[in-house]
Amino acid sequence: FVVNIRCGLLGFILGVLPGAGATLASAVAYMTEKRIAGASGKFGQGDMRGLAAPETAIGATACGALVPMLTLGVPGSGTTAVMIGALSLYNITPGPMLFQQQPDIVWGLIASLFIANIMLVILNIPMIRIFTRILAVPNWALVPVIAIITGIGVYAVHATTFDLFLMVGIGIFGYILRKLDFPLSPILLGFILGGLMEQNLRRALSISNGELGILWSSPITLGVWVVTVFMLLFPLLRIWRKRAKQQAAAAHG
């Protein structure tokens, strides 16, 4: 229950950020719960928190993505971008005035979220037995199907064979890292955030005509830089404090 509340809030906050998406929310939620669990958790070995955390964050992200769409007219995800396009066909422009001009649409969308969650519970509980049978499928039958679906999805993006070779190379690289007991979550998070960082950096530089000062010229950006530096240094500080306590205990012992 605590995991659902924590990851629900985390997913909602990330959903409000335009462009973050469910993939980022699920990765961040999984890494957060894995770090909180520490040595007591068995993530990757059947720990239910490893399943509940990303799924809760994904569901909350869908709700959070409606916030920038309804208040600012900015799509928070691919789904809300499609919704904006559908609303525009009926001469409805999402934004601040939508709450005053057509509040029935806004509150209808909000009410639909509650109804959808209730319907999902009603539909999914009887189908639990069907879903659990997927776990009984042997790996020799499941892995080829996953590989084929993954290959089709990768090829459909740019329709180039290079992407297929890149997928295979990344898969081999990830397999080697897993055999060497390297954590894969930071690498996946880097892949997810790398593209978003590059796109937004390019967008910011295009607005400032290539002037790098835009990255730290406002109080908001300075605050983001301070938080970023703190988050980078916090793990190092924890390691330093842990070593200091161990050395102090060894000296007194």
Quickly list its features.
membrane; transmembrane; mainly alpha; single chain; 253 residues; transmembrane helix; DUF112_TM; 77% helix; Tripartite tricarboxylate transporter protein TctA
Estimate the global geometry from the Cα principal axes.
Answer: globular
Uncertain residue segments: none
The N- to C-terminal Cα distance equals: 42 Å
Structural class: mainly alpha
Return the average pLDDT rounded to an integer.
Answer: 80
Order of helices and strands: HHHHHHHHHHHH
Multimeric state: single chain
User: Over all CA atoms, what is the radius of gyration?
Assistant: 22 Å
How many separate helices?
Answer: 12
Strand proportion: under 5%
Largest sheet: none
**How many strands appear in the DSSP assignment?**
0
What share of residues is helical?
over 70%
Describe the structure.
- The chain crosses the membrane at residues 51-74, 105-123, 130-149, 155-177, 184-201, 213-237.
- Keywords: Membrane, Transmembrane, Transmembrane helix.
- Residues 5-189 form the DUF112 domain.
- The longest helix has 34 residues, at 219-252.
- The mean pLDDT is 80.
- It contains twelve helices and no strands.
- The protein has a domain at 219-253.
- By secondary structure, the protein is mostly helical.
